[in-house]
Amino acid sequence: MKTKLLTGMVVALVMVSCATTPKPNETLESARAVVQSAETDPNVAKYDPLDLETAKKHLETAESAHLNRDEPGIAQPAYLAAQTARLAQLKASAKADDARVAAGQAERDRIQLAARAREADNAKAARDQEAQKAARLQAELDALKAKPTDRGLVLTLGDVLFDTGKAELNSGAARKLDQLAQFLTEHSDRRVQIEGFTDSVGTDSYNLDLSQRRADAVRSALRGRGIDADRITTQGFGKEFPVAGNAESGGRQLNRRVEVTIGGENGAPIAPRGSR
Q1: Helix or strand or coil: residue 246?
Q2: Helix (H, G, I), strand (E, B) or coil at 104
Q3: Which neighbouring-strand residues pair with 40?
Q4: I need a labelling partner for 210 at 20 to 30 A (CA). Which of 51, 150, 160, 255 fits?
Q5: Which domain holds residue 231?
Q6: What are 155-196's pLDDT values in tens digits?
Q7: Is 137 exposed, middle or buried (0-12, 13-18, 19+ CB in 10 A)?
Q8: Do 223 and 168 sit in the same domain of this protein?
């Protein structure tokens, strides 16, 4: 008797359950899936949360109609929920793409700006380096008392560096030659032409020989200070190319000289004296 009673109660409960639980609705199930997909999409939460909220409200309306067994009332809100959720995903995806493009452009702009800044810094550094180089060169030239000419920088070693009629450099020449050797060491691409001159006193052959020996003496002094012999050429001109008159002793002293012509950068050749 008790068994029959229990069986009847179970059957009654099942019938009640079936009577109170709404049947699944395919349109509603589909709408739930679409809205859930939009909810889990991080782009939607970031770029289109308003449409997502609208889709959820439509879904709530459809859910309420389903619980109330209002089958005709399910279709439209479920449809709106699904469509609004899909629209939210599409809009969010487009905005995400735009953001990626913008970020890429911003990165390209940053790289270009950085490159231009580096170029400007490098150009400034190059200008500063050239300015420093020019200032250093000018200071060296001032120390040497070298004068710029069409042939190159010309340093004049006066007759006082040699004893009368001699080709041996005296001790007073050391400082000037040290400065010249230092300059040539720091500017190792420059060539040197050493030219000797005398006054008009004496025979032409004597003066030519003396001027050549004095030019060679300067060459030997530079070689002794580490300057490569291949960079140095010498020539004696005797009484040619005077810089003053030979009638007075002061003028003759100026004519007794050795001129050191320093060529340009990168081994530029020195033009012959007669080409000016």
Answers
A1: coil
A2: helix
A3: none
A4: 150
A5: 145-268
A6: 998 877 888 888 999 888 888 899 999 999 999 999 999 999
A7: middle
A8: yes
